[in-house]
C-alpha cells in the first residue's frame, strides 16, 4: 500500500469535499471522538487533531466550541482544508517522527482514521515499533495531565491493535479500547481511549472526574456483559482488566464494547495452559474425524478421487513407525 | 499559522532536543523564531471569543510570546501577565488579537538552538524531518 502522503493525493483528497458519504462518516467519528474525550462541560478547550486532513474533524471541534491545531502528513489534504477555510491552524508533520509541541500544550487530542498508518513501514528507514513509540511518547508529553486522547483507528488485524495499545500503555497512558457496533462488519469502529497521567485533571475539572468515577461502576458492569455476549475473536476480553477502565466509565455508552488494555491476568494464563494441555491429549479428536469425513464428502460431490471411509479414517497416526 | 501555534511549537531535530535543555529547566530550542518573507505576515480580524481567550491565557508561554511579539514589532507586552488579567476584557481582547489574528503566511521558523529552518508556505509550517535528523 502506498504511504499516507502518497495515498491521500489530489484525487483522494477531493473526495473529502465532494463525497457526502465520506463527509458524513468522518463527521460521525469525529463527534464520537469528542464525546469520548469527556471534556469538562462548559469549558472551551484547546485540542490537537492528529491527521486532520481536510479539516472535517476540525469542523466538528469548532462547532463544539473548541479551538484546535491539526497535523497531517499529506500536503494535498491540507491544501483542500485551506480551500475550505478551516478555522484552526494546520501543520505538515509526520506523527511517526513525534509531535513537535511543547509539554502540556493541549486539553485533549482526537484522531480520525490516521493512527493505523503507523503500523506500516512504507519507507526503507521506517521501523513501525519505533515510530509508534515516538508518537505515543510525544502525545503523552504534549497533553496536560489528566487529559484524554480519543483515537479512531482501522487496525488491519489483532497484531496491529496489540502493537498500538501496548505502545500506549508503555508511554504511560491508561485507558482502553472502545468498539462501536461490534456485531456489524461495516459500522464496526475501534476507538483507542487514553488518559494521560492520573485521572485527575490539573484544572478545574475535579468535579467532572469524580462524577465519572461514580458512573464507572455501572458502566463497567454493563460493558462486561456486552463483551461476553459478543463473539469477537480478535480481542482478548478480561474481566480483571475491565476494572482498569475506572475513570473512563462516563465516556462509554452502552452501544460500545469496552476492552481495557494492560497486562493479562493470571487466570487468563491458567485458561490458556489448560486448553493447550487438552490439545495434547486429543480432546478435539472427534471434531477432527468429523472434519475429515466432511471434506471427503465434499470431494466426492465434486467427483474427485477419494478413498473410501473406514474405521481408520480421521485417526491419529502412531507417533513412530518401527 | 497564528502566533498561538508558534507558541506551542518546538524543534524536533533529535540532536537539537538532546542538547537543548538548560540546567534551570528551560529549552534553548524554544521558541522558534518567526522570520516572515516580505509581505508574509498578514492581519485578519476574527470575532473575539472571551471563553477561548480565558482558556488560552494560562496556556501561553508568556516569555516566549513577549519575545516573538517584540521581534516582529507587533505589540509591546508587559514583562508578566498582570494580576487580574482574566477579568480584564480589554487585556484579553488585545492578547486574543495578538495570538489569533496575526497570520504567518510565507516565511520560516528558525530554531534558535540548531538553526534548522522550518519553511512556512501558504500558512502551513512544514515540520517534516529528514531521516538523518531523527
Automatic annotation (TrEMBL), chain A:
Residues 313-322 have a biased composition (Basic residues). Residues 265-295 have a biased composition (Basic and acidic residues). One of its GO terms (biological process) is rRNA (guanine-N7)-methylation. GO terms for molecular function: rRNA (guanine) methyltransferase activity. Residues 265-318 form the 18S rRNA (guanine(1575)-N(7))-methyltransferase Bud23 C-terminal domain. Keywords: Cytoplasm, Methyltransferase, Nucleus, S-adenosyl-L-methionine, Transferase. Its main location: cytoplasm. It is found in: Cytoplasm; Nucleus. Residues 48-149 form the Methyltransferase type domain. The keyword DNA-binding does not apply. One of its GO terms (cellular component) is nucleolus. Residues 262-322 are annotated as: Disordered. It comes from the Eukaryota. Belongs to the class I-like SAM-binding methyltransferase superfamily. BUD23/WBSCR22 family. This is 18S rRNA (guanine(1575)-N(7))-methyltransferase Bud23 C-terminal domain-containing protein. It comes from Cafeteria roenbergensis (Marine flagellate).
From TrEMBL, chain B:
GO terms for biological process: rRNA (guanine-N7)-methylation; tRNA methylation. One of its GO terms (molecular function) is protein heterodimerization activity. InterPro entries: Trm112, Trm112-like. Gene3D superfamilies: 2.20.25.10. PANTHER family: MULTIFUNCTIONAL METHYLTRANSFERASE SUBUNIT TRM112-LIKE PROTEIN, UPF0315 PROTEIN-RELATED. Belongs to the TRM112 family. This is Trm112p-like protein. It comes from Cafeteria roenbergensis.
